[in-house]
C-alpha cells in the first residue's frame, strides 16, 4: 500500500456546485477523476475545496481518498494537500503548489496557468508524480481560472466589457464565439450563470465587486472584474 495521498485534479464538474475535478500523478494514484467540492471561504476570501471520502474508492491502493486545495497566505500560493489518513488535515502532505502572483482570485489556477510544482522531496511525493502538472500529464477543470483577472486580461485581448462601473446592463465586445457566462461575487459564490450574450442584465445584483467569466466554444476562458453600482 502506498503511504501518501495525492489530489488528482480533474475539473469537469458542475459550475453551480463549485466543484473541481482532477486526474493525474498516475504513478501514485489510479487513472480516475477526483472531485473536490467548495466547503467554505477562508479569512482571505479564498475558496477551500475538499474531496468527499468514499470507502473503497480506488486510489492507488489507499482505499479512501481525502484531498484539499486551499490558499496559503503566508507563502502566497495555492496548495494541493493530501490528508494524513483520518480526514482532519492536521498534518497534511503537500503534493503540489502554484504561485501565479494573482492574489485577487478566490479560485485556484488551472493546471495550465502558472505552474503547479510537484513537491518532490521525501516528505512530499518523493518524485513519484513525474514532475509539475501540465496539460499533457493531467486535467483540471471546473471552478478554476486560466487567465489573469481584470485589467491584465483586458490589455491582452480585444475583448472588452463596458460600462464599468455598471448599473443595469454589461455590454461585451470583441468576441464572436462565446458560449457561457458566469458571474461570481467577491466570496467566490456563483450568482449568475447563462448562455453567452453580448448584453448581460445585472440589475438584480446587489452593489459591489464581481468577476465575469466568459467561456468560449473552444473552451477558452476570460475573466473581468467589474463594479455594480
From TrEMBL:
Keywords: Signal. The keyword NAD does not apply. Residues 1-17 form the signal peptide. This is T9SS type A sorting domain-containing protein. NCBIfam families: Por_Secre_tail. Residues 161-221 form the Secretion system C-terminal sorting domain. InterPro entries: Secre_tail.
Amino acid at each position: 500500500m502506498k503511504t501518501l495521498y495525492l489530489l488528482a485534479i480533474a475539473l469537469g464538474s458542475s459550475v453551480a456546485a463549485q466543484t473541481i475535478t482532477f486526474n493525474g500523478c498516475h504513478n501514485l494514484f489510479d487513472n480516475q477523476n477526483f472531485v473536490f467540492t467548495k466547503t467554505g471561504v477562508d479569512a482571505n476570501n479564498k475558496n477551500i475545496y475538499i474531496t468527499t471520502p468514499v470507502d473503497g474508492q480506488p486510489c492507488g491502493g489507499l482505499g479512501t481518498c481525502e484531498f484539499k486545495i486551499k490558499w496559503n497566505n503566508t507563502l502566497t500560493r495555492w496548495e494541493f494537500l493530501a490528508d494524513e489518513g483520518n480526514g482532519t488535515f492536521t498534518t497534511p502532505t503537500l503534493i503540489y503548489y502554484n504561485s501565479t502572483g494573482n492574489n485577487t482570485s478566490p479560485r485556484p489556477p488551472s493546471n495550465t496557468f502558472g505552474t503547479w510544482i510537484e513537491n518532490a522531496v521525501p516528505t512530499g511525493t518523493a518524485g513519484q508524480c513525474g514532475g509539475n502538472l501540465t496539460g499533457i500529464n493531467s486535467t483540471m477543470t471546473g471552478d478554476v481560472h486560466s487567465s489573469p483577472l481584470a485589467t491584465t486580461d483586458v490589455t491582452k485581448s480585444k475583448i472588452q466589457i463596458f460600462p464599468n462601473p455598471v448599473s443595469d446592463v454589461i455590454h461585451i465586445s470583441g468576441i464572436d464565439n462565446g458560449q457561457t457566462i458566469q458571474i461570481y461575487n467577491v466570496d467566490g459564490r456563483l450568482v449568475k450563470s447563462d448562455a453567452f450574450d453580448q448584453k448581460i442584465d445585472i440589475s438584480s445584483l446587489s452593489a459591489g465587486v464581481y468577476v465575469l467569466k466568459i467561456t468560449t466554444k473552444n473552451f477558452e476562458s476570460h475573466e473581468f472584474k467589474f463594479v455594480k453600482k
